[in-house]
Write a structure and sequence with these properties.
single chain, alpha/beta, 7-stranded mixed sheet, 8 helices
Length: about 240
C-alpha cells in the first residue's frame, strides 16, 4: 500500500483533513511522545540535519510541516538566517510552536503560517533552503509535495528532509517492529488518548518510500545531487538535494 493511502482514522476521508485532525488531537503530547519514541535521539537527528543545512548558508529558510517548531528553532539558532518561515496544517501544533518561539526570544526571526504543503502560498524561488522533519509521510500526494518544495526554492537552493525509516538488519527489525507496532501505540494511547494516531505512525513509516525510491521521487520533482544519509541502524534517513 502506498503511503498516501495510509490514513490516521479511516480509508474514505481525505488524508490531509485526517492528518490535520490527528495532529490537533496529539499536539499537547507531541513533544513528550517524540522524546519517548526515539529515546531522545530525534534531537541528534535534527542536529545532524542542521549541520548539513548550515553548510549551504541559506538566508531564507522554509520549514515545511514545522509541527511544534523544534527544527525551525534549531535552524535559526545554528544557521542564523535572515528569515525562517514554518508552515503546518495543524493549528494545534502551531500554537505549541508559537509558545516555544516566544519563550526562546525568536518571535522576530521565525514566522508561522497555517498552510498546506501541496499548495504553498509563496512565490517561485522565494527560499534558499526548504526543510522537512518527519513530515513527508503525511503528505496526501508525495510527488506534488516535492514539486511544490522545488518550486519555492531559488536556483541552487537546498532541500533537506529528515524521515523515519525501517532498519534493514533482520534481527534489529524484529525488535524495531515490536517497539513501533506494540509499545509505541500503547504508550501513545495512554499519553495522548488517541490510539489511532500512534497506530498510524508505524504503518506510515513502513509505507513511505525509502532510500533510492525516495531519491527517485525527488529527481522526478526536478531535484539534482540527491543523496541519503542513514542514521541509528537505519531508523532515520536524511535526504538532501539541490535545485
Amino acid at each position: 500500500m502506498k503511503v498516501e493511502e495510509i490514513k490516521p482514522y479511516n480509508s474514505t476521508g481525505a488524508k490531509t483533513a485526517q492528518v490535520r485532525e490527528m495532529f490537533d488531537s496529539i499536539a499537547p503530547a507531541y513533544d513528550f511522545m517524540n522524546r519517548a519514541m526515539t529515546l531522545g535521539i530525534d534531537r541528534w537527528w535534527r542536529h545532524v540535519a542542521v549541520k548539513l543545512v548550515r553548510k549551504a548558508r541559506p538566508q531564507r529558510i522554509l520549514d515545511v510541516a514545522t509541527g511544534t517548531g523544534d527544527f525551525a528553532t534549531g535552524l535559526y539558532k545554528k544557521v542564523r538566517p535572515k528569515q525562517v518561515v514554518g508552515i503546518d496544517l495543524s493549528r494545534g501544533m502551531l500554537d505549541v510552536a508559537q509558545r516555544k518561539i516566544q519563550e526562546r526570544g525568536m518571535s522576530d526571526a521565525i514566522t508561522l503560517l497555517q498552510a498546506d504543503c501541496l499548495d504553498m502560498p509563496f512565490r517561485d524561488g522565494e527560499f534558499d533552503a526548504v526543510t522537512v522533519a518527519f513530515g513527508v509521510r503525511n503528505f496526501e500526494h508525495l510527488q506534488q509535495g516535492f514539486e511544490q518544495m522545488h518550486r519555492v526554492l531559488s536556483p541552487g537552493g537546498m532541500l533537506c528532509v529528515i524521515e523515519l525509516s525501517t532498519p534493514r538488519n533482520t534481527v534489529i527489525k524484529w525488535f524495531y517492529d515490536l517497539y513501533t507496532l506494540h509499545i509505541i501505540p500503547w504508550v501513545g494511547a495512554l499519553k495522548s488518548h488517541d490510539r489511532s494516531a500512534y497506530r498510524y505512525l508505524p504503518l506510515s513509516i513502513a509505507a513511505v518510500p525509502q532510500g533510492d525510491d525516495m531519491l527517485n521521487i525527488m529527481r522526478q520533482a526536478g531535484f539534482n545531487h540527491c543523496k541519503v544519509k542513514r542514521l541509528t541502524l537505519g531508523t532515520c534517513s536524511i535526504y538532501t538535494a539541490l535545485k
